[in-house]
Amino acid sequence: MSEITMTGTLMGVRRSPGSGTTEKIVYIDVEQRPGGGPATPSMVSVLEQDGRRVAGYVPWINYYDIDEAARQEPGAWSTVEPAEHYSALVEWRPYGMRTGGRAASLELAGLLADLAQTPAKLRRTAAMVGQDAVTRTEPGEWTITEVALHVIAADSIMAPRVLQILTQPGVTLPDMDVAEVQRVLGRARTPLEERLAAFEARRKEWIAALDQITAEELEYAGEHTRDGTVTILDICRAMSQHELEHKKQTESIATALGYTLG
C-alpha cells in the first residue's frame, strides 16, 4: 500500500452513523500512472476515519449507482450535484478494496481488502503452473496444491467463527487442528480448480456480509477453548497474516519450479 495525492471529481458521499466512517466516491479524471496512482477513467472509493483515508477501485459507473445505493440505505448516501473537485492524500489500495464501504472500521476494511485477494491469487498461481501444482521442489516440501488445501482448511475453521460470533455473541469456539481438517478435506480428492472456485465464491459472500457490520457488532467476541476471548478483528487479523504467509509460499514454490510471476 502506498500514500499518494489523489485528484478527481467527487460524485457521492456515504456517512455511517455511529462509526465515524465516511465513504466518498470519486471519479478519476486525471491520470496518475505511472507512480502508483489510479488510472483514468475509473471510480474510486475513499474511506475516511479519524483523519485517515484509504482508497481503492470500485466497479461503480455513474450517478445511477449512488442513487440505487441511496434507495437501499435511506439517509446514508447522497449525490454531489454539481460535482466537486476532490484532492486528498490517501493510502492507495488499488485492488481488493471493498465495493460498499460499509465496514465499521478502517482496520477491518484493510483486512477485508487483503482477504478478498487470497482466492484469486491462489487460483492464478495454480493456473500458471498447471500440472506442476502437485510437484515438490524438494523432498518433504509442500506442493502448491497442498498449500491451497491448507489455506482452505484454515478458512473452513476461522471464517465460520466470525459468523457464529455475529449470531451468538459469547459463543464457545472449540480449538481445532487445521492439519486434521486438511486431512479430512483431502479425502474428497476434488480437483484444485474446483476447490479454488468454491473457495472464491464462499469468500466473496463472507466478505459481502462482513462489509455490512456495525460498530456495535464489531465489539462482539467469542470464547476460544484455548486462547480465551477473541474478537472479530482478532480472527480477521489472524486469517490475513496466515494467508499472507502462504501466498508468499506459493510464489516461492512457483519461482522454484521455474515460473516467472507477472
Automatic annotation (TrEMBL):
SUPFAM superfamilies: DinB/YfiT-like putative metalloenzymes. InterPro entries: DinB-like (IPR024775), DinB/YfiT-like (IPR034660). Pfam families: DinB_2. Residues 116-249 form the DinB-like domain. Transmembrane segments: none annotated. This is DinB family protein. It comes from Sphaerisporangium dianthi.
